Amino acid sequence: MKFGIRSRNVLIDNEIRSAVVLIENGKISDILDYNTSGEYVIEDYGELTVMPSLIDTHVHVNEPGREDWEGFESLTKSAAAGGITMIVDMPLNSSPVTTDKNSFEKKIRAAEGKLFTDAGFYGGAVPDNISELNSLHGCGVLGFKSFMIDSGLDEFRHVNESDLEKIIYELNKFSKVPLLVHAEKSEREKENNIGNEFSFSSFLKSRPGEMECEAIKILIRLSEKYDSHIHIVHLSCADAVDLIIKAKEDGLKITVETCPHYLYFHSENIPEKNTVFKCTPPIRDNDNREKLWKAVKDGVIDMIVSDHSPCPDDMKFTTEGNFKKAWGGISGIQLGLSAVWTESEKRGFSIPDISKLMSAGPAKLIGMEKVKGKIEKGFDADIIIFDPDKTFTVDSKILFHKNKLTPYEGEKLKGKVIATYLRGNKIYDNGKIIDKLYGKIILKETF
Description:
The chain is of the alpha/beta class. The chain folds into two domains: 2-50 and 382-399 and 411-430, Urease, subunit C, domain 1; 53-365, TIM Barrel (Alpha-Beta Barrel), CATH 3.20.20. It is built from eleven helices and 18 strands. The strands form three sheets. Strands 1, 2, 3, 4, 5, 15, 16, 17 and 18 form a nine-stranded mixed sheet that branches. Helix 1 links the parallel strand 6 (54-59) and strand 7. The longest helix is centred in the middle third of the chain and has 18 residues, at 209-226. The mean pLDDT is 96.
């Protein structure tokens, strides 16, 4: 089927232009003049923005084993409604965790027949599975994930510097895949000594920024020693930015992400007993948030992804308000683009800026920069229709997340996804999911 998408605001080559995007067999076959007509149907979106769909390379689906937390069907519906056409699943918090070939195959079987968007997968790198990394790589994982601090799951143990050396040595034998690391240094953990378990400020003090900085120093040292690509996930501490700048200036293969919740919220506005905001590393103060935005503006931070990590409502202990007991994770994949646009526009960012951070940047991380993340001839026709001026107040009832508890409840956001196309197939349309599965499992060897 050949058809066109027309708008006066199409993001092409980092510029907004009037154009028709011609789509054929799931690919962008041409980019034509706005007034072009031909023997094909044109969907005209007027003044709405046509831009590449987002790629979210940090998502916890939790299936198999913890489907009551989240699952492939509900997660990919939420992603589609948020303008995302590809997610990459972390190797935890599913059960089993994805740390060997057998568990990876269970993960694939769990995803089959449930994908409204594309899905790729990471493998876990833990102290006791180094001998399994080669077979996991052969399964087609898009990268490997390690924690430098307690992950919250006994079956996914954290690594020390010696473990990381062994993991990196092994990964360097393979074709290029990144090592993604949760960078908080375990030895500095103070969470078990929260002074007031019902206080967000006490929780914040239990995860000081120094924990991130110390971990990142180790990762920079190892990247330099082994000439390896290390990706720092969910950076929350702006004090680490200067370390990252120096590493990049030295030519090291360090990339870094942050998340919408670190750029939207700040600790001064978080009520003491509101455990919905608990995540690790934590949301820090407003001064820190502004420094993170500067790092984004300066190109130090390479991408923005969700770290969508939901759990059943009772695991948040919202009635009790106990931060020590509450599971740490933010649910918000469907709202990420709107949250980022709400705050970024105030700071002088443009649609091309945000697309680079939420589409092209993640595509490059997983080696798909020649297939996805841009509106360009030959690329997958993964496209969203976005209204950058539309405002709305978040009502969790509209969310497709399995567990709808979110810190964005009641927030007034600007920018709304109107429609989402995956390889030219409309998968979301103005509040409704198109009830047909177009998503594919994406493995390393298939692109």
